[in-house]
Structure formats: C-alpha cells, structure tokens
Specification:
- The chain has 2 domains: 1-201; 244-394, no CATH class.
- Helix content is 68%, strand content 0%.
- It has 17 helices and no strands.
- The chain has helices at residues 7-26, 33-53, 57-71, 84-100, 105-117, 121-128, 132-155, 161-172, 183-200, 207-219, 227-241, 244-265, 270-274, 296-313, 317-340, 355-362, 371-386.
- α1 (7-26) packs parallel to α3, α10 (207-219) runs parallel beside α12 and α11 (227-241) packs parallel to α14 (296-313).
- Mean pLDDT is 76; it is low at 267-294 and 343-348.
Length: 394
C-alpha cells in the first residue's frame, strides 16, 4: 500500500478486502464457469490488499484465519488449475503476515510444512491432473515462505546455524511418514524444500549446503527411481547458486554420482575409485556397484541434462574449470576401464551425450593453457574412442 494513505483509508481498504474475501470464499461453488477466472484473480488481489493493510495483531490474526480457510481443501473438494493464483497468494500472504507478527510464525511454519509434506489435496489433485507448472508455482511460494520463516527463527535462535541444520534433518525425514501413493510427490517436495532452504541459508562456510548435500546423497538410488533425476537437477541448481566455499562439495558429489552411474555399467572399476580426485567422502556413500540396481538410461539422461544446465548457467570460470577437470579425470579412468573390458557382453556404457556438456563447461576457462588438463582430456578421448563409448548408443 502507498505510504501516504491515511489511517482511515487503510482501515477502509482492510475492511472491504476482508469482507470480499470472506463472502467469496463462502460462495465459490456458486461462481459461474465464465466468471471463475476473473473472480480468482480479484480474490488474489484482495489477499494482497488485506495483507498489506494489516496494522494490529487482531487484524493479522483475522487475516491469517481467512487465508488459512482459503487454502484448506478437503479430500472431496475439486481443485482446478484456474484456482492456483489464489492458493499462491494465500501461501505468500501467510508468510508475510508471520514475518511481520512473530506470534504467527510457529503455526504458519507448521502449516506450510504440512502443505508440502502431508501433502495438501491441492498438490495431490494437480499432480493427478498432470499440471506440473501449477505444482511448481505453489512449490516456489511454499519454499519461499519456509525460507523466510526459518530465517526469522534462526536470527532469533541462539544456536544459529545449528538450528537450520536441525530443520533440514527434520525435513529430510518427513517423506517416511506418508502413504505409498503419496510418497513420490512428498519425496519431490522434500528435495526441493531442502535445496531452497540450504541455498538461501547456507550458514558459516556453507555448513547448511554441505549438510543438505549429505541428505540428498543418501536418497540417491535407494531404490533407483525418477526421484534420482530430480535430485541431480537440484544438485545442479545448488552448484549454480553456491558460494565459492560451498561449490566444491556440490561439484564433488555430482562427479561421484557420475562415476557411480557409468562405473556400474562397466562392471566395477577399482581404478576409478583410486584415481586422483575421483572419490568423494560423503555420508551415505554405500551405493552398490551392481548394474541391476541402476536404471542407467534414465540416470544418463539426467546427468547430461544437469551438466548442460551447468554449462549454460555457471558464471565463475574457476568453478567451471574445477568441475571440468574433475570430469576429465573420472572419464579418463572410466574410458580406460571400458577399453580393458570392451569384450564384456552387455556393456551399454556410452558417454557421447556428455561431450557437448563438457564443451559448454570449457567455455571461458583456461583449459588450453593448462597442459595437465589437455593431457587428461587427450587420454580420456583416446580411450573412449577405442572403447567405442563416443559413437551411437548401443
């Protein structure tokens, strides 16, 4: 709201917007299909007006009750994608109210967690309808709210960074408490919430980021599932947002996952695990080398997608070069193993999809001036070509 409005004008706006929200919320079922989208937009605007004009604790409590009612959906209620702007406005508005009125922080934080992790019937129905864009929009609002609320709690908490780490651990454990049919949706929500909180509240020396990496790494391939591709994508997001102190742990885990993914297809490769810089010490490093436990093609596509995104989005030349060197070292060792084992039946490992990604990463780096990197790449390319890993997928 403008700063120059009078108290009387503010109060009038508050009363009118609140009354409109309550009346329309009670009569949503009577809104005709023709007017529904316009009404939802006006309701979302009314939510913003109510939140912006709150001036007392009583008004904040009343506004929060109204917004909670609007975003609370019972199992039998029908959810449409047209209603998403209203739900997003309510999630955003409750976070704003809680940050301005501390007494609301605990209940709003718990409500936001429940929205993601129970999960809300809104998300369940949108998933069943295949409305991923709408789900992503609500994810962002809920995760932004979580970050803001945890930041406020952390600033007021004596334990500081330990408070964030404890919150991340509690989030990570949440997916084990839901029914099997909701498990995939909740697991995705957990992964995205972990990354959002860790990236925005990295802590001293990236402690929250490192803890988040450990939690995500423990979820990979246990068991192999489409969640692996989501985790890889989120690790890529962490890499692009991480500070210099937090980047190398993220890059190291990405390289470790790549080593495991491709190494499993070659039937076990001790040389890789012993090569310089190719291993990562991380909690949960208990991945089996049994190829039957991996859905290799799914993982390969996810790895290629993540590396291509990093090639486009990583800004710092030093970060790009660090990741590139690690990839060269790992793939040189993998290619040598593949060459030695090329007569092994059923060898489906193939790195052709990753060559363009490594080319993107090389842009703007001093690779041509670093003889050691050139030698590593030369060896990788030689062994990969001889082993047949850079042709068409077999």
């Amino acid at each position: 709201m403008p700063d120059d409005i009078s108290e009387e004008q503010r109060g009038t706006a508050q009363r009118l917007a609140s009354r409109y929200l309550k009346e329309m919320a009670q009569n949503q079922s009577q809104i005709g299909a023709k007017d529904f989208t316009a009404t939802i937009k006006s309701l979302a605007i009314a939510v913003d007006v109510v939140v912006a004009t709150v001036a007392t604790q009583a008004e904040a409590d009343a506004a929060d009750d109204t917004l909670q009612g609007l975003v609370t959906i019972e199992e039998g209620d029908k959810v449409t994608v047209e209603s998403v702007p209203l739900y997003a406005a309510c999630l955003r508005g409750r976070a704003v109210l809680a940050n301005g009125w501390p007494v609301l922080r605990p209940p709003v934080l718990q409500a936001t967690r429940r929205f993601l992790l129970r999960p809300s019937p809104i998300l369940v129905q949108l998933q069943q309808a295949g409305e991923q864009g709408a789900i992503d929009s609500l994810h962002r609002e809920a995760c932004d709210g979580l970050v803001a609320l945890v930041r406020q709690s952390t600033d007021a908490h004596a334990a500081g960074n330990d408070h964030v780490i404890a919150f991340l651990s509690s989030l990570s454990a949440s997916s084990s408490t839901v029914s099997d049919d909701k498990q995939p949706l909740v697991a995705e929500n957990v992964v995205k919430a972990l990354v959002a909180v860790a990236c925005d509240l990295p802590g001293r020396d990236g402690a929250s980021v490192k803890h988040c990496i450990s939690l995500l790494y423990q979820k990979l391939f246990f068991p192999p599932s489409p969640l692996d591709a989501i985790i890889l994508g989120q690790l890529g997001i962490m890499a692009t947002r991480a500070s210099d102190s937090a980047f190398s742990p993220v890059a190291d885990v990405l390289v470790q996952v790549i080593r495991r993914t491709y190494g499993s297809q070659l039937g076990g490769n001790e040389r890789v695990s012993q090569s310089k810089g190719a291993s990562v010490v991380a909690p949960g490093d208990e991945l089996s080398d049994d190829p039957a436990k991996y859905r290799f093609i799914l993982q390969e596509d996810a790895v290629a997608s993540t590396l291509n995104a990093l090639g486009r989005d990583l800004v710092g030349p030093a970060q790009r070069y660090y990741l590139l060197q690690r990839l060269f070292e790992v793939f040189r060792a993998l290619a040598m193993d593949a060459r030695l084992a090329r007569e092994t039946a059923g060898n489906e490992a193939w790195v052709g999809a990753l060559i363009p990604a490594m080319g993107l990463l090389a842009r703007g780096t001093p690779i041509k001036r670093d003889r050691s990197a050139v030698v590593i790449f030369r060896d990788f390319w030689f062994h990969a070509v001889v082993a047949g890993l850079v042709g068409q997928r077999r």
